[in-house]
Amino acid sequence: MRQIKSVKCLNPGSAMNEPFKLAVFISGRGSNLQAILDQIDNSELDAQVACVISNRSEAGGLGIAQQHGIKAVHLSPKQFASEQDYEKALLAVLQEADTNLIVLAGYLKMLPQLVIHLYKNRIINIHPALLPSFGGKGMFGIHVHEAVLEYGCKVSGATVHLVDENYDTGVPILQECVPVKCSDTPESLAARVLEVEHRLLPAAIKLFVQDRIVIDNRRIVIKP
Ligand code: GAR
To answer: Hey, what domains does the chain have and what are their CATH numbers?
Structure first.
């Protein structure tokens, strides 16, 4: 049976003229976070990064958040006695930030299943390849580009997708190709894909802010 769902009321804030609030998860340098902040600063994206959460205390992206006066939190299961305590702490941060959309911007961990359930259709991830190719557990960062080159692909790209219970299996929202050159190294390919990521992730966030996403089974329809 076809199930068409508008992901409406994702932005309860807008009704009250409140900013659309993002919780951005990172694990590393945070260049995608920076791209989101740049678009917000240039008034190209009408949203607010309400908090940045990292599983790694040394993630460069936490510094970017602090420079912007954004709440930056290091949260990892290792800091807690149980998974439940970790989930509770994570949910407290998300609720305090009044989160409308969770953005995984180079976050290399799986979110707790409870968070995925509670924020269903309100979590997006950027992946540096054309899913469903070169996705799944262990496929992150430079490993993705190594695998693309090893396979001999002529194109790669970036995908922004909804997050479900598994690694990289949620419905794609936006995808864009980049050519693979004969002379490419994993690093040069990563740099070309990253340029696309920096446009694609803010563009996908904008679709949520503008309430333009409709889910038609495994297809995202973008309202004009
Ligand atoms: C990005 O290329 C992102 O697509 C990738 O990690 C990098 C983070 O860079 N994510 C994954 O591989 C997830 N499977 P950044 O910290 O500079 O944004």
So the answer is: 4-222 (3.40.50.170)
